[in-house]
Each structure stands twice: as C-alpha cells, then as structure tokens.
Amino acid sequence: MEVKTINTEKCRPITEIICGKKPSLSFEVFPPKLESNIESVEKAVKEIATLSPSYMSVTYGAGGGTSKYTVAIAEKLKNVYGVTPLAHLSCVSSTRDEIHQKLTELRDRGITNILALRGDLPEGFVAGSLDYKYASELIAEIKEFGGFCIGGACYPECHPESESSAEDIKHLKEKVDMGCEFLTTQMCFDNDILYNFMYRIREAGINVPVVAGIMPITNAKQIKRTCELSGQLLPQRFRRIVDRYGSNPVAMKQAGIAYATEQVIDLYANGINAVHIYSMNKPDVARQIQANISEIIK
Q1: Angle (deg, nearest 10), helices 165-178 and 135-145
Q2: How far apart are CA 41 and CA 66, in angstroms?
Q3: Alpha-carbon span 180 to 210, nearest angstrom
Q4: What are the percentages of helix, strand and coil residues in the chain, rounded to 5?
C-alpha cells in the first residue's frame, strides 16, 4: 500500500480522545491476508475513514503475518485521511529485536498509539522458549522504549485461559502497572456483564479508561466463530433474534445492526463514553451504526 504523503507529526493520544466530553466512536479494520486482496481492503479503509471516526484501530494478524500492511494502513489513515490510527502489536511469535524494529518503524512514521497484545500461542509452544509470554511483558518493553500511548485488551467475561475472574483481573492489574494507559474490551453482547466487570476492576484499583468493544453480528455464520474467539455465549435475547432472522440474510443484518446500536446507546447512557466497533471491514455496517446515533455523538 503506497503512502504518498510523508507526515511524521505524532498522532493524538487515544487517552486524550476517549477522555473528552464528547462520546467517542471508533472502528477496527484488518489488513489483507493476501496481497491480492489489498485493493478491496484499501477501499473499505477509505470508506470507513470518510466517516471521520474518533480513531481507527488496525489489527496485526496472527503471528504478525500482516504486520507490514498494519503499518502502511495506519500511516495512510494518519497522513491521507486525517484519522488517528491505533496500531495493534502482538509479541508472542516475535523476538525482542523484532519488536524493537517494529517500534522504531512506528515511531519513525509518527504512529504513536499501540494496542499491545500477546497474540495466539504458536503450535508446539514450550514454556520459556519465547522472549514474550504475556502482554504485560510487551507493555513494559514499549514503556521502556518510550514515546507511545499504550493500550491493552481486557475480557469482561474472563480470559479463556484464566482459571478465574479474580486471576484474570490480577493479570489485568499487572498490565496497568507495567504502563498500560487504557483498555479495550473483547466483544461483549451483554452490557450488564460489562458493567459488572467495570465495578470489579475499579474495586481492584484499575482506574485507566475503558473502551467498550461491540461486534455487530450481521449474519448467522459469524456466530460460531465469534463465540470461539471471545470464549463467551450469546445472551438468550440475541439468540432469539438469530432463531427468528438467521435464515434471512437481509433481516439478520438489519437486526444485528439494531442490536449493536441499542448496546451502544445504553453504554453511552450509563457513562461508558468510549465505544469501539469491530466492523469487520464493512463500511455499510459502520455507516449505519454511526447514522443511528448521529445526534448522540454530536
């Protein structure tokens, strides 16, 4: 992906964006797995960027396989479209030298917001064989490197690998203590679970801002994969929607967007002022959700 404009000016820190008086609405995009798909991804990125979201996150890809596109897309968002990018960075399959190379590249291009993630453990993982085993270690590395606003991930329904929610919150506190400045939740389909999670982490002394992650389910085929990724079950209320409209693609899409919109409105009304939409490179979904709440986010 060619980026013609060279602009090394730093991005606005995500913490500054999400802690403002105005509700923030952001979207996620992901790079292509194959170079042959770059044109369609570029088109989706451009269309979502024209909505002027609060910021846009760009995923890293399993094992960093699409990381070269992550940087290019993030740079284009900043330099061409004027949208603050949040670059994902995962570490589990990277050496310390590789992480430092990536941090240098991001810094040199003026991309100063990072969502620091562990990433999926490689097959045949052997304890002690990796430079980084936990996201907290990556966060500490970025903090020491300097110059970045660092975000991390959190799981309202508990990380699938944690033995308990108490253990999960303990590890989350370690991330914050290492330098994580804001958190973004895994996709959540039940706001009450998120509110309960917010109460528990505040009780544990985690006081950084939290961005609520919302995944609009627009077709029935998404559901199994979504639940596998998030380690959670869909609430009964949403399952009834799927049972009723899942076989009708147009109706399911409309219902899924409506359900996500309702979640967003409820979050804003209850003091969660930052919402991040996992829009799956679908500009029409991003556009419709934004239109549904246009007066709310003015």
Answers
A1: 10
A2: 12
A3: 11
A4: 45, 15, 40
CB 120 within 8 A of CB 61: no
For residues 63 and 93, the answer to whether their CB atoms sit within 8 Å is: yes
Joined together, the tokens standing for residue 175 give 């991330």
For residue 238, what are its two tokens? Answer: 């949403």
CB-CB neighbours of 289 under 10 Å? 24
Q: How far is CA 145 from the centre of its chain?
A: 22
d(CA 66, CA 35): 10
Strand stretches in the chain, DSSP E: 24-29, 56-58, 85-90, 113-117, 149-154, 182-185, 210-214, 274-277
Residues assigned a catalytic role: 28
Kindly write down the DSSP assignment for every residue of 135-181, as one continuous string: HHHHHHHHHHH-S-EEEEEE-TT--TT-SSHHHHHHHHHHHHHHT--
pTM over 0.90: yes
Buried-state track 231-262, b at ≥16 Cβ within 10 A, e below 16: ebebeeebeebbeebbeeeeebbebbbebbbe
Sign of CA dihedral 151, 156, 162, 167: positive
Encode pLDDT of 208-248 as tens digits: 999 999 999 998 887 766 666 655 678 889 889 988 999 99
What number is the average pLDDT over the span 192-199? 96
Residues 6+ apart with CB under 8 A from 240: none
Nearest residue to 151 (alpha-carbon basis) of 112, 114, 198: 114
Q: Does the CA dihedral 105-26-274-226 come out positive or negative?
A: negative
Please state, in angstroms and rounded to a whole number, the distance separating the CA atoms of residues 283 and 75.
19
Q: What is the pLDDT of residues 32-54, one digit of tens each?
A: 887 778 899 999 999 999 999 99
- Whether the CB-CB separation of 117 and 61 falls below 8 Å is answered with no
State the CB neighbour count (10 A cutoff) for residue 35. 11
